[in-house]
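ugh ok so i messed up the first submission bc i forgot one of the chains. this is the corrected input, ALL of the components this time, i swear. 674 residues overall. if the numbers dont match what u have on ur side tell me asap before i send this to the collaborators (the ones from the other lab, u know who)
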Amino acid sequence: MDMVAFEHLGFEIALGTYLLASILFVLYVSIKKRRLGAMGVALVFFGFVFQTFALIDRWFYAGHPPWVSTYEVMSFFAWTIVGAYLVLNIKSDYKSVGVLVAPLAFILLGFASMQPTNPTPLIPALQSIWLLIHVPIVILSYCAFVVAFAASALYLLKDNEVSAESNKPKHVERVSEKTQGGQAQKEATILDRFRLEELDELAYKSVAIGFPLLTIGIITGAIWANSAWGSYWSWDPKETWSLITWFVFVIYLHARTQNWNARFAAYISVAGFLSVICTFLGVGYVLPFMETYLGVSAGLHSYAGGDAVAGTVFFCGILGAVLLLLFVTRRRPPSADAAPSAHTAVNGS
Amino acid sequence: MNLAVKIFTSTKFAVAVIAVIIALSAVATLLPNGNFVFASPFFIALVGILSISTIICSLTRIAPLWRTIANPHINVSDQFIKALPYHAYLAGVKLSDLRGCLKGYSCLEASDSKEEALFAQKGRIGRIGPYIAHFGVLVLLLGVLVGAAFGYSNQYNNKIAVIPLGGSLQIADFSLKLSNFSVDYYNDGTVKDYRATVYVLDGNSTEIHYVTVNEPLTHKGLTFYLYSYDSTGLAELGQANWVAFQIKSDTGVSFVWGGALIALIGIMLSLYVPHKRIWIKESRQGVLFGGMTNKRLVSFARELDNMRSELGNADRADKTTQSGG
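and heres the new structure output, hopefully the right one now
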């Protein structure tokens, strides 16, 4: 079998496996059979191994790292997210997060498969050592922010569940929940496995990994731009949105040191995720889409041609999902005896 | 005046300014030719206000912080220790036993006739991290300012230097001679790279440089980027008749990189180095023992648990690891 065919086989196995795992995870969270969750993780791992081989194989035959074309970047991004999910599951039980991760990986790979897969030779500007450093660092930072988003989304869902559960004051509720640990008296939902503080701390830890990576990514990008175009910063939409993302997480980190409440931090983490999506999909697809179909000219140079319509649909899908999350977890009017949440960030100083 | 100080020392105000900067930047990417926003006096004023706020916030916070770090209270009250997020009473343990467990901690002791107390801490640098980061960002902004001020005043900045093949061009007190220009192709005919061979003649010295897309030529503070070339000659005769270089002069760029590096170090210190503090006090037949940290309380609690099991005192005392509510 030649290398191209092997790569496509690995890619397609991963694609199929992630789809199958998505179905298993949906079943797992709806009928709560432990074995389904374990099978889901095993399947995801299986797909991940094949995708790893596919990426390495492609690196060899394309002659450049597998993060240049849209096809490659989407696939690599999915690979980092699945990898982070598997790493998280080594120490703790985050199996049920697979209900988000597996479909996301499937959609990313599905989107990748709609793009041209033939490797194109590197244009002169991309032939730089920074291609090897800058791109994976930025993608890893995005991956960390996706993990932070997942933790914050679960935090918001859990926080709402806790406050909706009863009319008892919240603190008492939380303490009893903590001490009873896994032996919940009622039928366990997927959220019961997590403690609010754990989710909050997971979000913080992910941002603590993603933020320095994004900082390094922006700096290396500026160094690269300076050597290729003679200017380290030109406010193109990609640069601008990466800086916006950086600023959103600056707010997040300051919120932590100020002991602002954890729910507020979770909202900022969600905003940071939206900003990542704008940087990643918005600049590459939505702006060209607006330029082509709505006649709004942003005057940008997009890096990859790609399919503007599919990318815009993808973007709107994610935006819709986030808006749905915000709607579902919106603060309901407090009942007479329940005080507003005073749960503060664990990591604040 | 008082109000101004109050506003500028508030983190909430700084965050509000950042939020406005974010909103403006986002709108600018949606506008046709929206880049004018970033050069507008309003945007520059916002960055200026944020810088001043950063300076004032840092200055007003660093002095009290320094005092707590430099002169920690060693002998604290029992109530103080019992109010710490992690605390325990270790029966039958002596202060001297604990000293051996505090590896990597710097210890301070206070003793008088009645009682003995020990204070141990590590990771103080982590507390300074945010201020190092702020300083780095300010140096970076200074670099942008210097680049804008001196870059524009340099007569060569942003000029295009067109050099004929084999010819040379005098710039300031040196000259560039273009000896060759070549284009590399991939097998499928797309361009792999452009390469200009340039001699820099300065006084008696001659240096050879190969200028490619990712490797500009820098000499005496001026940087020459491949900008354009004579493609008609290339197609017909196999060689370009001329090559154009864009000249850039940015004296602030080293401040930008230096500032970015300082900021990065500060960010890493503040995120990865927790400031851990432990207070220990002899009390009755044992010691009272408590600790706090500014981040990652869960792992610090685990460290202290391990310390206790080393002393064979794991299960005798009560503790509070997290105070969530």
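quick check: DSSP finds ten helices and 13 strands in chain B. that seems consistent at least. The two ends of chain B are 38 Å apart (CA to CA).
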